[in-house]
Design brief:
By secondary structure, the chain is an alpha+beta fold. Helices cover about 25% and strands about 25% of the residues. Helix 1 (about 35-50) packs across helix 8. The termini are close together.
């Protein structure tokens, strides 16, 4: 079985309010790319992945006037994808949902949010002391993680959690001191969200249930200058310690072990002021210890680092046109 996670930059901008694709020459929300070009590139990438299920990060918006699941299913129908059934859990106000697009002939999935005192439902509020002042801070997810109970056609049951952790930019800051103060506060909130997610992970693992956590954690070892203030990145918190309580992703593990030198990347951003590209490892598929015995094989579909992607010009171009992130897949015996 092939599972994938893919952050699609402003997927929502490719659909009208009825969920129909906008295949025209108007600019998409992706810089320098038309809506038709981005949609066609995405269609090519999804067709090539041919995944049984894709955790779509920044999926089309769902609110009173728009239906993100309907939009994703229209996209799947237009490009003839096997993964053609969409599911969204708790919606948010960012126009960037978390959704699962899956092949109903291979697996079924239902939204299965959990609730506990240590880790409340992800659409709720989490109490934690962020600044060690003996006062509880109230934390909420801007993009509540998607908790799913999954059963494959062969009867294998497992839990999936799709996540998109986000640390807001220091909006409104007018001085370097204000930028630093707001950036540190926002990073504290992101780490609190990672702790919240980790507590849920520990609950699931404590029940002996197979678990996969996938998505964009927007963080990684050595990603910014504030990491040393907190000791650990969001990735390290979510993965947990080595051993029975830890999740595993080989790319994350490689980056953690090798702080210096080259390491994998899943995203590519252009820095206008510096006139260069920044590559970062942001997207992960983390598995519980029991699933590591199921012959898992990870792959980052990077247009320059993956030989097949590089040697296939149409796929290379599609990956660069479709999004500023690249898909990550997991092939596993389920």
């Amino acid at each position: 079985m092939r599972l994938a996670t893919y952050n699609v930059e402003w997927f929502d901008a490719l659909f009208d309010d009825t969920g129909a694709l906008l295949l025209d020459d108007h600019r998409s929300a992706r810089h320098g790319v038309t809506r038709a070009a981005q949609a066609e590139a995405l269609g090519h990438v999804f067709q090539t992945l041919d995944a049984d299920a894709v955790m779509v990060i920044e999926a089309p918006d769902s609110h009173r006037a728009r239906d993100g699941a309907r939009a994703l299913e229209a996209f799947a129908a237009h490009y003839g994808l096997r993964a053609r059934t969409a599911l969204i859990g708790f919606t948010n106000t960012t126009q960037q949902e978390i959704a699962l697009l899956c092949d109903p002939d291979v697996l079924s999935a239902v939204h299965a949010p959990r609730d506990s005192k240590r880790a409340p439902r992800f659409d709720g509020t989490f109490e934690i002391d962020l600044d060690i002042d003996a006062q509880a801070d109230l934390v909420q997810f801007s993009k509540p993680p998607l908790e799913l109970a999954v059963e494959t056609a062969s009867g294998q049951r497992l839990n999936l959690i799709g996540a998109h952790l986000k640390s807001k930019a220091p909006h409104g800051a007018k001085t370097p001191d204000a930028v630093m103060r707001i950036s540190i506060a926002n990073r504290r909130k992101q780490l609190a969200q990672a702790i919240w997610l980790r507590r849920r992970i520990e609950e699931v693992l404590g029940q002996g249930a197979p678990l996969i956590v996938m998505g964009d954690l927007n963080d990684g070892p050595g990603l910014d200058q504030y990491e040393h203030l907190f000791g650990r990145s969001s990735v390290e918190i979510v993965m947990g310690a080595d051993g029975t309580a830890g999740l595993y992703d080989p790319h994350a593990r490689q980056a953690l072990v090798r702080r210096l030198g080259a390491h994998p990347s899943t995203a590519r951003f252009y820095l206008r002021e510096e006139k260069r590209y920044l590559q970062a490892l942001l997207d992960y598929i983390m598995v519980s210890p029991d699933l590591r015995t199921r012959a898992p094989a990870w792959r980052i579909w990077h247009p320059f680092d993956d030989p097949e992607c590089w040697e296939t010009p149409s796929l290379r171009h599609a990956l660069l046109t479709a999004s500023d992130h690249f898909p990550v897949t997991l092939d596993i015996d389920l």
